[in-house]
Amino acid sequence: MAFVNWLKRHLVVIAGLLTLGYLLLPNIVVTVFSFNKPKGRFNYQWQEFSTDAWKDPCGVADMCGSLGLSLQIALWATLGATALGTMIAFALVRYRFRARGTINSLIFLPMAMPEVVMAASLLTLFLNMGAQLGFWTILIAHIMFCLSFVVVAVKARVMSMDPRLEQAAQDLYAGPFQTFVRVTLPIAAPGIAAGALLAFALSFDDFIITNFNAGSTVTFPMFVWGAAQRGTPVQINVIGTAMSIIAVLFVVAGMVISNRRARQKA
Amino acid sequence: MKTTNDNGGDVRLTQISKSYGGFTAVHPLDLTVPQGSFFALLGASGCGKTTTLRMIAGLEEPSHGTVHLGDQDVTHLPPYKRPVNTVFQSYALFPHLDIFENVAFGLRRRGIKSVRKQVEEMLDLVQLGEQARKKPHQLSGGQQQRVAVARALINHPKVLLLDEPLGALDLKLRRQMQLELKRIQTEVGITFIHVTHDQEEAMTMADTVAVMNAGRVEQLGSPADLYENPKTTFVANFLGTSNLIEAEVDTSSGDEIVLKAGGGKLSLPRARCSAPATTGGKMLVGVRPEKISLTHADDAGEIPESRNRITGRITDSSFIGVSTQYVIDSPACPEFEVYAQNIDRDARLAPGAEVVLHWNPAHTFGLDAAQDIDAGVETVAEEAA
Fold first, then answer.
1. Rounded mean pLDDT of A231-254?
2. What's the pTM value of the predicted model, to 2 decimals?
3. A172 closest CB neighbour out of B95, B138, B151
4. What is the domain range of residue A258?
5. Is B25 helix (H, G, I), strand (E, B) or coil?
6. Mean pLDDT estimate for chain B
C-alpha cells in the first residue's frame, strides 16, 4: 500500500525520467561507441576502450570536408531563410494585401508535405532549368524548406507585439528606419533567434532533400549514409558526440544567462 | 524648437473628418484648443474621441480638413516630425529598455547627446528617480503611467495628448494621478488634450470639456457650464444624472416660460431653455437630482409658493453616507431621482411615503423634445459594466 502511494505521488517524475531515458539512450550509445576500438569496418560491437578516434577526428578520408560543407550550407541557409522569413512574417502580420490568406496557408505546405515529394519535385525543377546540381542547388533547397519554420516562429512573436510600441517610437521622433532598428527588431529578436536556430538544425541534418539535389556533392549526413553501407568509422560517433555536447552547452549557457538576468531583476 | 508667439501653441482643427470605408468615425469638426489649456474630449467608446486625438498626433490621416499647430499646417506631417507627444492608453513603454532609456528615447532620436541631467530631472518630477535602471514590467501600473508622462513631457512638446491614460488604474490611484497630472500641467504650462470616457475625470481635470457623441461634438464648455446648462439630452444624461420630464408649453412671456407636466405647472427661465418655446409645443424639462428638496405630503403647506413642485411616492431609497438617494414615482416621470444631503433626516421619508418634490425654478433647464429622452443613459451603463 505504501508503495502504491509513493508511486502515485511520484508518477509525473517517473514518467518524465522514463521519457528522458528513451530520448537520450541513442545518444548515450553513440557516445559510448565513440570510445570503441572495433575489429573490422563496422562499429556495432563493443571491443575495447580507446581514445584513438578522438585524437584523430578527421582521420577518415573526406569526412571533415563534408562536415565543413554541411556547416557552410547550414550557415548560409540560416542567414537566407531568417532574413526572408522575418520579412515575410512581418508582411503577413502587419499588412493587409490581396494574396495574404493564400500565402499564409502556402507557407505551411513545405512543413506538411512529405520530404521525398518535395525533394523529387525540386530535382525536376532544377533539371528542367538545366541547373548544375551541387552547392547552390542544395542551398536553394535548404532555404526553401527552412523558410516556413522561420516564418512560423517569427510570426508568433510579431503577433504578440503591441503595434502601439512602434507608434510610440514614431511619436517620439523616430523615423521609420530608427523605429525598426531601435524598437521593432530588438523586441522581435527572440522569435528571430528561435527561427534561426531551428533553421540551422534542420539544414545541418537534412538528408532526403539534399540527397536528391546534391549531384556529386557530399554533405555530412550523406557521408554518414554512404559510410554506413561500407563500414562505419568511429569518427562518425566522435562528430555526433561533439555535436550533442555543443548543443547541450548552448542550452546550459542560455539558462545560466537568463537565470542571472532574473536574479539581477529581483 | 521655434519660439512661440501669442497663438503659437493653439491647436486648430478645421472641418476635420475621418471615415473608414463606409463608416464615418469623425464628422466634419471645428475645434480650437487655446495654448496652455487643459482640454478634455469626453465620450463613450466609439464616439470618435481617440480618432480625433490620433489625427492631432499624426498617427491617423484625416479624410478631410486640416490640423494646425499655431501657424503651422501639420496635416500631412508624419508623427515623428510633429512637436506633439502622446501618452498612450496602456502606456506603450518599450519593454526592452530600462526606465532611463525609455525617458531618454525622444531626446536621443533628436540627436541630443548629453541627456543624463534632463532625464534625471524629469524622473524626479514624476518621483521615479530611484527606479531609473529598472525595466517597465518591474514597475506598478501607477509608476508605469508616470514614466509614460515623463517620456512624453521631456521633449517639451507644444501639445501633450493623453489617450485614456488612467483607464488601467484602480479608483484610488486614478484620483491621485488626476491631481498629479493637473499639478504637472500647471507646472509646465503645456497644452494638454485628454481623451476619456470618465465624466468625473474630465470635470476634475479639464478647463474645457468637449462632449462627443457618434463622431460629433455635442457641446463644449467649462465643466460647470456643461453640468448646469446641458444643451442636449445626451449631455444631460452622460454628464451626471438628469431628471427629464416631458412637458407642454402653457404660456411663454418675458423671461419666464410656464409648462404643464403631470397635472402641475413648472416654471423655467427663458435663458436656460435651448429649445423654441411655442405655446402648446412639447418640451423636455430637466432638473438635477441634488437640486431637489423632498417634503412629506403632510407638510406640503410649508413649501414656498415660488418653487416648482411635483407630487409622487417614494419607491426606493438607498443610504450612501453623505447623501440618501431616492427614486420617486410621479405622474410626470416614473423614475424621478432625488439626492438629499443627510443633514436633517425625516424618518417619514421611507419607501411608500407620499411626498412633494420642489426646487428653485432657476435650476430648471429646457431641452428640445424632438430628441431621444434616454440618449447617453445606456452609454454610461455600458462603460460602467
1. 88
2. 0.78
3. B151
4. 233-266
5. strand
6. 88
A30-55: pLDDT as tens digits: 899 888 888 877 777 888 888 888 88
Name the β-bridge partners of B356: B295, B311
CATH of B11-228, one of 1.20.58.760, 1.50.10.20, 3.30.499.10, 3.40.50.300: 3.40.50.300
Alpha carbon distance, N-terminus to C-terminus of chain B? 45
ipTM at complex level = 0.78
Instruction: Give the closest-approach CA distance of B157 to chain A in angstroms.
Output: 10
CB contact under 8 Å between A171 and B57, yes or no, is yes
A228, pLDDT greater than 90: no
Ramachandran region, residue B106 (left: φ > 0; alpha: ψ -120 to 50; beta: rest): alpha
Q: CATH number of the domain at B233-384, out of 1.10.150.170, 3.30.460.10, 2.40.50.100, 3.40.190.10?
A: 2.40.50.100
Mean pLDDT of A207-215: 92
Lookup result for grid cell 532609456: B101
As a whole number of angstroms, the distance between CA B215 and CA B52 comes to: 9
Q: B85 contacts in A (CB within 8 Å)?
A: 171-172
Gyration radius of chain B over CA positions: 25
pLDDT attached to residue B4: 42
Q: Residue B95: count other Cβ atoms within 10 Å of its Cβ.
A: 15
The closest alpha carbon to A157, from A83, A250, A90, A112, belongs to A90
Nearest to A265 among B85, B94, B138 (CB): B138
Which pLDDT score is estimated for B5?
Answer: 45
Q: How far is residue B217's CA from residue B197's CA, in Å, rounded to a whole number?
A: 14
- Using DSSP's 3-state secondary structure scheme, residue B325 falls into strand
Angle at the Cα of A118 from the Cα atoms of A114 and A120, rounded to 5 degrees: 115
Looking only at the bridges linking them, the beta strands covering B216-221 and B208-213 are: antiparallel
